Amino acid sequence: MSVKDKVIAIIAEQAVLEPSDVTMESTLEDLGIDSLGLVESIFAIEESFDISVPFNANAPKESDFDISSVASIVAGIERLIAEQKT
Amino acid sequence: MKRVVITGAGTINALGHDVAETLESMREGRCGIGPIDIRDVDRLAIKIGGQVKGFEAEGIFNRQQMSLYDRFTQFTLVAAREAIAQAGLEFHGELAARSGVVLGNSGGGMTTLDDNYRTVYEEGKNRVHPFVVPKLMNNAAASHVSMEFNLKGPSFTVASACASSNHAMAQAFQMVRHGMAPVMVTGGSESMLCFGGVKAWEGLRVMSRDACRPFSANRNGMVQGEGAGVFVFEDYEHAKKRGAEVMAEVAGFAMSSDAADIVMPSKQGAARAIAGALQDAGLNASDVCYINAHGTGTAANDKTECAAVADVFGAHADHLMISSTKSMHGHLIGGTGAVELLACIMALRDGVIAPTIGYEEPDPECALDVVPNVAREARVDAALSNAFAFGGLNAVLALKKV
C-alpha cells in the first residue's frame, strides 16, 4: 500500500467513511474530524509509519507539519519518512 | 430544607448487570467472588475477586466512545443509563442547567494506567495513545455522564478511598436538600481488578486468598470487587409533581475524620459518623432496624465497626441487623458505598435484609446480628450505610422508608 493510500485509510477510519470518500483536496473539517480525531490520526500515522510527527495541538499552524488538506498531510508524511528513515 | 428521595437506581457489579439481578443475588445470598480472569494472573498471590463477568462493552459503546472510556467509565455509564431511565427524567432548560453529577472513585482509570505503563516500561515504546489522560482521569466518568445526559449543573468526582461513594452521595444529598439542584445523579464506580491494581493491594497483606467472611471469627481479609452504582437523588416535591416512583428517602448523613492513622480504623471516628447521621436525619437510635456495614472482612475493620455500633446504639445494638454485602460482591473501593446502598433500598422498600454470606464462626468481638448466610424478611423503616476509609475518612448515610 502506498503512503497516500495508507494515510487515506487512516483518515477514513477516523472519519467513519469509506476511503473512496476521502479525496486529496478534502480538509479535516470537510471530513468532520475534530481536534481529538486529529491527534488520534497523528498517533495512528506515527504508529503505522514508525515516524515522529512534529505536531503541537496548541499551535497547529506553527507546527512544522501542514494539516490544511489530505494532500498536504500526505506530502508532509512522505517528507518525514524520507528524513527519518535514511 | 427539602426532602430528598431516590427515584432511580442502576448498577453493574459481580452480582449482576442491573439492579434487579443484583438484588435477586443478594436475596439468594449468591457469591459473586471467584477466580479472576486478568492478564498475568499467574504472577499474583491473590487470584480471586468480585469481577464483572460477561460484560461486552462493544455494542454498548461506539468506537470513538471505546477509545475514551476506561472500564470504570463504562461501568458508570451502564449504571447511569439504568438509573436515569428508571427515574424517567430528561434534562433540558432550567432542569439541565441546575442538575449535576457527583460520583465517588478512588483509582481512576487503573486499567488504562496499567496498559500504558506496560507499553512504555515493559515494551519500551516511546509513544502512547493520545487519550491516555482523558481516559484515566478519575473525573472522566462524571464528565461522560454529564455529557450523555446534558447535566450542566455542579459535577465533580470525590476521592476518599473506600468512602468515596458515600462522600459523593452525601454531597449530592446536600445539594438537593438545600435547593441548589433539583436533581443530582450520584454514586460511584471502581475498576481496580487489573494486574497493578491487585498487586498493590497484595502489598498491604490484608487480602484473603479464598473468601470474604465479614464478622466471622475465621475471617482472613478483604476481597476486591469492581463495578458501579448510580442513583438519581431528587427533590421530593419535584418527584411528586411529576408522579415519579420513589424508592426511598435519603434522610441524613454525617462525615468524620479519625485524624489518627493512615490505615487503622478508629472506633471513635466511626461512632461519631454513625451518631452524626442519626442526628442529621432526626432519627432515634431505636428507629434503625438495619445497617449495611462497611464490613470488609479484615480483622481490624470488623471488630472496630461492631464496637462503634455497640457504643452508639447501646442496648438497641442487639435488636438491629447489620450485614456486609461485600461477602458477595467484594470491596468495590471507591464504588462500594453505591452498590451497598442497594441493600438499604431493598431493606426499606422490599423488607428483605441481604445476608452476610461465608459466615462460619461467631466472633465475640463482633457479637451483633450479622444476618448470617441467609436473607431475612423484616419491616425496616430506617437504615444506615457505613463507609470507613483508609486515611480515617468516614461517611454514613441514613435512609428512610417513604
TrEMBL record, chain A:
InterPro entries assigned to the protein according to its UniProt record, in alphabetical order: ACP-like_sf, PP-bd_ACP, Ppantetheine_attach_site
Superkingdom of the organism of origin: Bacteria
Entry keyword annotation includes Phosphoprotein: yes
Record-annotated Carrier domain positions: 1-81
Keywords in alphabetical order: Phosphopantetheine, Phosphoprotein
Name of the molecule in the record: Acyl carrier protein
Naturally occurring in which organism (per UniProt): Aquicoccus porphyridii
UniProtKB/TrEMBL annotation, chain B:
Principal subcellular localisation of the protein: membrane
Keywords carried by this UniProt record: Cell inner membrane, Cell membrane, Membrane, Nodulation, Transferase, Transmembrane, Transmembrane helix
GO BP annotations listed: fatty acid biosynthetic process
Gene Ontology CC annotation, any one: plasma membrane
Gene3D superfamilies per record: 3.40.47.10
Domain Ketosynthase family 3 (KS3), residue spans: 1-401
Signal peptide: none
GO MF, any single term: 3-oxoacyl-[acyl-carrier-protein] synthase activity
Acetylation keyword on record: no
Protein localization: Cell inner membrane
Chain segments annotated as transmembrane: none
Annotated function: Proposed to synthesize NOD factor fatty acyl chain. Involved in the synthesis of a highly unsaturated fatty acid moiety, which forms part of a lipo-oligosaccharide that is responsible for host specificity.
Entry similarity comment: Belongs to the thiolase-like superfamily. Beta-ketoacyl-ACP synthases family.
Protein name: Nodulation protein E
Protein source organism: Aquicoccus porphyridii
